[in-house]
Amino acid sequence: MKNEGFSLIEVMIAMAIFAIGIMAIMQMHLWAVKNNSTANFINIATMAATDTVENLRGQPTLVDGLYNKKNGPVDINYTITQDAVYPKLCKVEVSATLRKHTIRLNTYIKNNS
Q: Residues with Cβ < 8 Å from 53, sequence gap 6 or more?
């Protein structure tokens, strides 16, 4: 009589190893989904901040002050201050927040006034 096939112990060990491998893959998948979501939030906030700077570049004059606006789900705060050394330049500081992710952009824009 020939013994062919696998014993119950061998099958159980193989299933345990397979289950551990599947759990590791599931953990990596969850980590990837979380980080992709975070990257998406940061990307949306960056695009909103960049859009604000580009809109300010198109303005004929910039007035010093602190401004707040909402661009969809993104809260945007920006400050415009005239440069003390070069009066035709304005320093613009933009902060864009989406959920708990904040992006800050600082630039100088020529004031046409």
A: 92, 94, 105, 107, 109
Model pTM above 0.90: no
Q: Does domain 8-110 have CATH number 3.10.620?
A: no
Residue-wise pLDDT for 82-97, tens only, equals 988 998 999 999 999 9
The residues, ordered by sequence, that sit 6+ positions from 50 with a Cβ below 8 Å of its Cβ are 105
CA dihedral for 78, 58, 91, 105, sign (positive or negative): positive
Residues 74 and 103 sit within 8 Å (Cβ to Cβ): no
- Identify the three-state secondary structure at position 84: coil
Domain-by-domain residue ranges, the chain? 8-110
